[in-house]
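Question:
Now give any protein.
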Amino acid sequence: MTAIFVPEQNLFRATEQAGGPWSPDLLQGSATTGLMVREVERLAVASGFAVRRLTFDLWRPARLRVFGVQTEMLRDGRKAKTLQVRLMDGEVEIGRCTALLTAQGSETPVDPFVPQAAADPPPETGTPPPAPVQRWSRYFQHVSVRLIEGALQKPGPAAAWMRLDVPMVQGETNTPLLQAVQAADFSSGVGQIVDMRQWTFVNPEISLYFFRAPEDEWILIRARTRVGDRGAGLTTATLSDRRGPFAEVMQAMTFEKRE
């Protein structure tokens, strides 16, 4: 079966299906964040705590190589825990995830000030992007996309359902949390506002804040990007499943003019 990573004892070998948009031998960001959150989720389930915040720092380009994952408990409290997951290429740290977990309560207050929003159209009613857009990267070719607002090939805010259709790790089933994290990395692409023939943009980090756990394999991204000064920008996105919103995403953006 096609997969993004193949396990090799305690390591994970990236397959060609992990290739990203900048070069076929450089991994899609979703592949690196997905591999790290897999370890976060394993530790969260074992502790009985809920994943509340995930911050990924993507420090170096990840190539089609074999990776190790190292974990450390930075704070082990009764109500909150902080985990660190490091993605290693040999002795070189490629990226890091810092995760905040909190204890789960038995009751939740009702917010009387939340406006009642109309339900989002389900993924079955959306439209796939044009074939050239779907070939954006080898990884993206394995992601089902259904647009309900805007267009991926045109600048401007947009909304799209996404689902990774192959296992992140061979022999495993992609969980809703993993689907949410791998989809979140596409927020800057969904909400891009520049002509990509004239500009490039990268996000060296991504942060997700969860107010409930995702419950479905299909993840809806509603994204927009703001531009500041000296090439700086910020992408924000809301993640939803069929039940409704469950997380907010922020990505620090850097824009560069093409020569």
Observations:
- The longest strand covers residues 244-257.
